[in-house]
Specification:
The protein is mainly β and about 180 residues long. About 5% of the residues lie in helices and about 35% in strands. It is rod-shaped.
């Protein structure tokens, strides 16, 4: 066993491996690589229940988890473009069947400096394709704040009695 170890040690010190390859070399380029997978995820939002819609100045806020390590676009679309009466969204007689609202988005981003992107949309703007907010090259790691403020009914007598609702869809995609 000693003979094998002595032979191995002698072979290591006998001739430096590749010594001829490094004569007169003053610099060396080394390529280093790696990757980070793209991640863009948003937490859930609970339902916003305003209760009695006859009260004025109603609004609600929600803090939503948002974590995107790439620049992104956020699209916001609404089914009705207002809180709509479940059975008679066109209203009846002098009573309105819809209640407009305003949705606000406040989104902290980093690019690499911190910034805040704020947008506000009237509910009617969100019908069809809705509206899109760009992260403007930033990433989001601090969540976002959503606010919904209810407007006034367009009918001369106020709102028709019944249940009102709206579905708002928020989607994030890489930009």
């Amino acid at each position: 066993m000693r003979l094998v170890v002595a032979t191995f040690v002698a072979a290591i010190f006998a001739a430096p491996a590749g010594a001829a390859d490094i004569e007169n070399v003053r610099s060396l380029d080394l390529a280093v690589r790696g990757s980070i997978p793209e991640r863009c995820a948003m937490g859930s939002i609970g339902n916003m229940d305003f209760g009695d819609l006859n009260r004025t100045g109603l609004g609600a806020q929600a803090r939503v988890r948002l974590d995107c390590n790439i620049p992104f676009n956020m699209s916001i679309r609404a089914r009705n473009g207002s809180l709509a009466h479940s059975d008679l969204p066109a209203g009846q007689g002098p009573y309105s069947g819809t209640l407009p609202y305003t949705i606000g988005v406040m989104m902290p981003v980093r690019r690499p400096q911190s910034a805040v992107i704020e947008r506000s949309f009237e509910s009617r703007e969100l019908r069809g394709n809705g509206r899109t907010i760009s992260s403007e090259g930033g990433i989001a790691v601090d969540g976002l704040a959503l606010s919904v403020s209810l407007g006034r009914p367009s009918g001369e007598a106020g709102l028709l009695a019944g249940e009102y609702g709206e579905t708002i869809e928020i989607t994030i995609t890489p930009s």
